[in-house]
Specification:
2 copies of one chain form a homodimer. By secondary structure, chain A is α+β, with helices and mostly antiparallel strands. The first copy, chain A, has a single domain, classed as Mth169, Chain: A (2-Layer Sandwich). The first copy, chain A, is built from 2 helices and 3 strands, in the order E-H-E-H-E. Chain A has helices at about 15-25, 50-65, and strands at about 1-10, 35-45, 70-80. The first copy, chain A, has a 3-stranded antiparallel beta sheet with strand order 2-1-3. The N and C termini of chain A lie close together (about 5 Å). The relative contact order of chain A is 0.35. Chains A and B meet through helix 1, strand 2 and helix 2 of A and helix 1, strand 2 and helix 2 of B.
Chain lengths: ~80, ~80
């Protein structure tokens, strides 16, 4: 079963990587870019057939390891 | 307008960061994890009202800067 965990910085948390990319885009002439935020798209392949159980475990993984809950938020989606 | 560009490593390209996360998850007892791949979820805020035009420009950004097309693939989605 495939699960996707998206981890992104909370609003208000400075994103230096996003700033750098925004600056580079401006340099390349993409002046319409107002802001860039860069998060992680984590794809997990798990040996689990129960969808609900797989999702609950992924939430646990996000809370324990994948996301830093002080500055990041996460969403979990079962891709099937 | 908000646009999301997902950049991930092509199949077959080694993902050391994903490997490290998989290893850490095993250490924490998440033995059901078979594989982990980590990509970038880039959110762009652009000053553009035309949806089609915004998407076309984002594709251009992905090809010119956001993705390394040798080893990465990308998808562009207009979030509105």
């Amino acid at each position: 079963m495939k699960i996707r965990v998206d981890v992104k910085l909370k609003n208000g948390v400075l994103d230096p990587q996003g700033r750098a990319v925004a600056h580079a885009l401006h340099t390349l002439g993409f002046d319409e870019v107002a802001d860039v935020r860069i998060g992680k798209a984590i794809e997990l392949e798990v040996n689990e057939t129960d969808k609900e159980k797989a999702k609950a475990r992924a939430v646990e993984m996000a809370q324990k390891l994948l996301a830093n809950l002080v500055i990041e938020s996460y969403t979990v989606e079962v891709l099937g």
